[in-house]
Automatic annotation (TrEMBL):
Name of this chain's protein: Pseudaminic acid synthase
UniProt source species: Compostibacillus humi
Stretches assigned to the AFP-like domain: 294-349
Taxonomic lineage: Bacteria, Bacillati, Bacillota, Bacilli, Bacillales
Transmembrane regions listed in the UniProt entry: none
Biological process, per Gene Ontology: carbohydrate biosynthetic process
Domain of life, source organism: Bacteria
Annotated PANTHER family: N-ACETYLNEURAMINATE SYNTHASE, PSEUDAMINIC ACID SYNTHASE
Amino acid sequence: MDVIKIGDKAIGEGHPPFIIAEMSGNHNQSLSRALEIVEAAAEAGAHALKIQTYTADTMTIDNKDDDFMIQDKDSLWNEKSLYELYKEAYTPWEWHQPIFKRCKELGMICFSTPFDESAVDFLESLDVPCYKIASFESTDLPLIRKVAKTNKPMIISTGMCSAAEIEETVKTAKEAGCKELILMKCTSTYPASPENTNIRTIPHMKELFQCQVGLSDHTLGVGVAVASVALGATVIEKHFTLSRDAGGVDAHFSLEPEEMKTLVEETKRAWESLGNVSYGMTKAEESSIKFRRSLYAVKDLQAGDVLDKGNVRIIRPGYGLPPKYYDIVLGKKITRAVKKGTPITWDLI
């Protein structure tokens, strides 16, 4: 797959995973807290910080009929109306500029998820480097077209989507002008369980849609994200907070700063470990040959002496003949005198 550039970062198989810290509503309606989150994400080594661009009124209507209520005892937001949730979680639009500015000062890429066309127009005024489409909007084809027409890279989460729906979204984006596309394997539960994450889908999705694939991860901890790198994920997105104890709409399944630092380090290690298909000794392993076993003289020998189990043993280090030749050399005569501790080689037999 082609390398995609977002800001100064190259994204693709030949580069470390691109790590996105998702602020979402974890600012708890405090701009100073939002800026602290930016600073903590940068210190932890995240490559990008993402926010969300909407208001309660661009998301839904203020209505408490059953259709507009969250009625799920297992949900973090049970008994809230959609309007109440988005009113609590949204990032005020006047905060975007200072958040973007602080990210730039700290050398971190900043972008956002728009949830309607007015948000795209607003984000274009801020010259965002790319766009993220949330899982719940991935079937909003008019929004997909609007974003694709900016000709900027698109990152699209696919939670709940069937293969046919993803195909329709990808086709719509490409036909509208998107040339750089990354799909994100995602499970749209909050939090998500590892059992429902199904990251084996990543290489299948990559092959099916011929584009880069990442992971938008709502599981607790970093294990699933690290594992996804081995399956080809080039982008990892995790929700991020200063402290889960401080609360917030997404805090329960968000990483804290030390965990984000671990995510950045361990996903890079996982990527570095992939390497190539390789057998045999690497350059780095050459000094370890002494820890192999091989054939050695364990007594002083004179020319003409017969090799036997009393004067030849299989020991470390590994500079003599491999152990598989032990039975072959027994009974053979030695061609010259050797000292105890001499490796047995063919020229001695």
